[in-house]
Amino acid sequence: MRQTYGTNIMDQSGDIHLLMTQLGHTSTTTAALYTNPGQEKSKKAAKQMGERRTNYLEKD
Length: 60
Fold this sequence. Notes:
Elements: H1 2-13, H2 16-23, H3 28-31, H4 38-59
Helix pairs in contact: 1-2
């Protein structure tokens, strides 16, 4: 439940300091475990790889 609560706070507010207060963390590193950016990072990485590939293919 704690993971879900922390993840929901980050999804809705995007405020890591609020998350730290709510969960009693003193470190942003620990609080960052609840940010769950995996899906968004994956989308961004895939887009960048596609752009690099396109740029590489256009150079030939």
